[in-house]
Amino acid sequence: MVTFTVEDQEGNRQEIEAPDDMGLSLMEILKASEYPILATCGGMALCATCHVEILEGENELGEATDAELDQLENLPEYFPTSRLACQIRISPLLEGAVIKLRGEDN
Question: Transmembrane residues, as ranges (predicted)?
Fold first, then answer.
């Protein structure tokens, strides 16, 4: 299990515990935790509606892919630590991370 913190649009933080042995994406865990993630494209890095900002732990996650960067660069507002939740796999690299929701529905 991996534990990380999610900050919602109001600034409220909640610790989330997720299994790291099922190949799930951060987007899937956020949706299962009933956060308002649209994920219109179903996790294909085509819509950016699962946009998040990594507030802590971004160095452990590695660089965004070119497809991910293409989507992020089309957003009205994105940050150096912006990522698409659908492109982040739940793994021990997420342990202790702080993730802020930034998607279109937020």
Answer: none
